[in-house]
Protein 1
Amino acid sequence: MYSVLADDSRAVKLSSARIEEYRRLYGDQAAKRLDAWQRLIRESANLPEHEKLKRVNRFFNQVRFLDDIVHWKKKDYWATPVEFLISNGGDCEDFSIAKYYTLRALGVADEKMSLAYVKALELNQAHMVLTYYDTPQSMPLVLDNLIGDIRPANERPDLLHVYTFNGDSLWLSKRGRRAELVGTSDRLAPWVKLRDRIQQNDVNLSQSQEP
C-alpha cells in the first residue's frame, strides 16, 4: 500500500539551491512565493495544530483561482504544491492538495486529514476541500478556498459531501463525515499521477499561464 510519508519532503521541503534553480527558470516572483512557503513551514513547525491549520489555510488562499482549462489547457490537472505556487494559480484541487501536503510536513497525521469531493450547492458545481478530524469521531473542520474561515462541516450547508480520500484510503462521505470505506485512493487516477510526479520531482509548467 502506498504511504504519503514517502514523498512529503519532495512535495514540500525545498533547498535554497532548488529555489534558486526555479528562480532562473520561472523568475523572481515565483521564487519569492516559494521562499514565503518555506518560511511558513519553518515558523509554523512548533505551533499548536489548530494554529497550523489557520496559517496554512490563510497562506494558500492568497493564490489566484484559475480553471484548469484556462491555466493548464487541460480539462482536469492536479498540480503539485510547487507547480501551484510557481504558476501563482490553480483550482480547488490544487488549493486542497497544497494545504494537505504542507500540513503533513508540519506533522499533522495523515489519518486526521482527507481531501473531500463535494458539490458546492450555491455554485452548482463539483468542488474539493480539505477536511481535518481532531479525533476519529469529531465533526471535521473544512479548509476551503471559497470561504476563508475554517468551519465545522455541519456549519457548511452549502457543501454536499460525496467522497473523501487521503494517502491510502477512499471513503464515501455523508454529512461531512467518512461514512463507508470503499477501497484505496489508488482508484483515483489523478491522485496517482500527482504522486508519481512528486516522486519524480517533475515540474510541468509549459502549458500554464505565465506566472
Protein 2
Amino acid sequence: MSSGDITSYGRFEIAARAITDTLRSQNASKSLLSPKVLIICGSGLGGIAKILHGETVKIPYANIPGFKESTVSGHEGCLLFGKIGANDVPVVCMVGRLHYYEGYDFADATFPIRVVAVLGVRLLIATNACGGVNETYKPGDLMVINDHINLPGLAGNHPLRGPNFDEMGPRFPAMSDAYDFDLRLKFFNAVKKLGIERSIHEGIYTYCCGPSFETRAECRLIRSFGGDTVGMSTVPEILVARHCSMRCFGLSLVTNNVLSDPPPSAREASARGWTAEQVGNQSAGRTSHAEVLKEGQAASEDVNVIMKAFINELTDNT
C-alpha cells in the first residue's frame, strides 16, 4: 500500500472518471478523451481558449467532484476541451485557475493538476500575469520562465507537504529542471518564425501568496534575490505537475512595473516643514487588478498567435 492517503488519491480518480463520463455523454471524439496538454489560462489570458477549433466541450468546475470554484474576476472557472493547430493537438484549458489566496489550501488549488495527470496529460503550459521586478522589463512584455523562487515554500508552505502520493511521484522530486529546455526552445523558435515584435524575455518568476500586491521593500528584496517577475500563482501548479512527471512550460505577461523606491520620509518632511501635498501623491503608480486585465487584453492577440504555433509543434514525440 502507498504511504499516501489512498482515500485522497481516490478523489483524483473519481474526478477524472466524472470528466470522462461527461465527455462521453457529449459524444466527444477519442482524442478529446485523451488530451495531450493542459493549458492554465492566467489573469487576462483566458482568450487563449479562443484558439481551440472544431469540437469543444466545456465542463464547469462546479460539475467536477472535488474541484473548487474560481472566485477571481476574469476567471471563468471551467475545463475546456478542444484541439489547437493544423496538427489538431488535443488540449484541455483551465479557464481560470485556483489560488491559495482565495482561501483554498494548496491541495485544493492544485487538485486539477493531479486529476488531469490521471487522465493522461503529460505536458503543462502555465500562463500568468505578473509584476516586472527586472528594471528592463516593461508592461506588455512577455517572459518565458526558466526558473522560480518559491518564497512560501522556503517558509514551509509547500504543496507537496504531507503524505506522498507514491502512485504519482517520488517523495523528493528534483526541481532543477522544472522548466523544460526543449519546450522553451520550441517556443522561441515559433516566435522567431512568426516575426513577433513584442519583447520576450527569459527569466526567474517569484511566487508570493497574495492577495495584496508587494510592498516596496518586498520588491527590493525580490530583486536582490534575482527575481525578474513576481506573481501569485503558477509555482504550486508547477511543483505538483513535476511531481506527476509532467514536462512544464511557463509564460508570464508583465502587466506593470513594481514600485521599489523607498517611500518618502515623513521625518524629513517634518524637519523641512513640508506638507503632504508638497511631497506628492503616494498612490501614483500603484498596481490594480483592472490594470492586470487591461494589459492581458492588449497582449492577447500576440499571445494567441504564438501559442497556436507553439502548441501545433508539440507532436507525440515531444
Protein 3
Amino acid sequence: MELYIDAEQAAAELGVSLTTLYTYISRRGIRSQRVPGTKKRQYWKADIDNIRKRKGEKPSPPARDTLQESKLTLVTPEGPYYRGQSAIELSETHTLEDTAALLWDIRRDAVFGPNAAVAPPELRDLYKVFKDVSIADKAIGILPFVERANPRAYDLTHEGLCRTGADLLRWYAAILAGRDVTSSEPLHIQTAALCGGEDEVADLIRRVLVISADHGFGAGTYAVRAVASTGVTPYRSVLAGFAIAPGRRNVLGHRAAIGRLLDELAASSDPQSVIARRMQEGEDLPGFRFPWPYVNGDPRANRSLDDLGRIRGDHPLFVKVMAAFSYAEAELGRHPGHGMVNDLIARVIGLPSREYLYPLGRCAGWVAHSIEQYEAGDVDPPLANYRGQLPKVSELP
C-alpha cells in the first residue's frame, strides 16, 4: 500500500485543483515531505483518505470492513435476543445449560452429559495458592491446568468445542464452590446450594444466569474472539474475558465501587440522602450505567428486580436500595444497571459476590463467541490511522 502520493494524485483523490490542495495543506493538516533531490513534495495518503471520509466519500483503496458479523445475539431496547429468541422470555423456562446449547447451536444432551471432566492433580495446591484472590483470578490460574488434564479439550470440531464449553461451565461452578470435581447437577442448583438452596432462590438464580449469558460485542467479547481466532481451546479464549474483568472502564471492574455504594445504603437510615449527597458532592453513582440502546433502564435489571422483589421484597437491604433507586430515577433520571442489580441479588440471597452470578452466565456467551469466531477464521483488525512521526522518503522500502 502506498504511504505517500504526489500532488497530482492527491488533488485527484480529493477532486480539487492543485491550488486548492495547497490550501488544504495548512488548513486541514495534510502532512507532506520533500522528495530528495527535487522541489516536489509527497503527501501522506492517510491524511488524504481522512479528508475524503469527512467529505462523505469512500477512501481509496477501499478500507477493510471492520463490522463484526455474528448470528448469536441481537441487542434491542427490549433486551437481548439469543438467535432470535428473547433472553428475558427464555429466562421464564430455560436453564443456563438450555441457553448455552441454543447459543452454541447444538442439542443440550449432546454436550451436557453425565461424564465429569478430569480434575488436574495440582488442584488442591492451586486452591491454596489462589485462596485470597478473586474468583476471576482463580479461574485464570486454574483453568489452564484443567485444560491440560483433559486432552479432549483440544478437539476443535464444533461438537468438541461445545463439549469443552460444557466442561468449562461446570468447572467454573466447581471453582466457585471450591470443589475437586465437577457436577452434572443444573448450574443454578449448584449455585443455590452455596446460599441455602431454597427452590425460590434457585429459580431466581436460573433466571439471572440466562439473561446474563450474552450481550453482543462488549470489550470482553472482542477479547475472547481475538484469542479464539488463533485456534486455542475455549478454556484459553474465555480467560481473556476474565482478564479484563477488573478494568476500570469495564462494567465488572466497578464491582468494588458498587459494593461501597451498597454498603452506604445498607448503613443509612435515609438511603435517598446517600444518593443526594453523592450528586451534591460531584461523586459518581457506580452501577447506574447501562449500555446502548437502553434509554429507560436496562430491561435485564428491571426484570431481575421484579423477580427479587417477589421472593425477598421485605428484605431490609432490598427495601432501602429500592427507595434509593426510586429517588435516583425521579430526581436524576438515573436507572440501575445489570451489574448493580446482580450485586444486590447476591447480597440479598446470601452469595458472597456477584462473581457467582454474572460471570458464570456470561461464560456461556463467551464460549459461543469463541466457537463462532474460531469457525469464521482470523479476526480482521481495523486499519490504523498512524499519527506519529513520518518516515523519510529515503527510508521507505
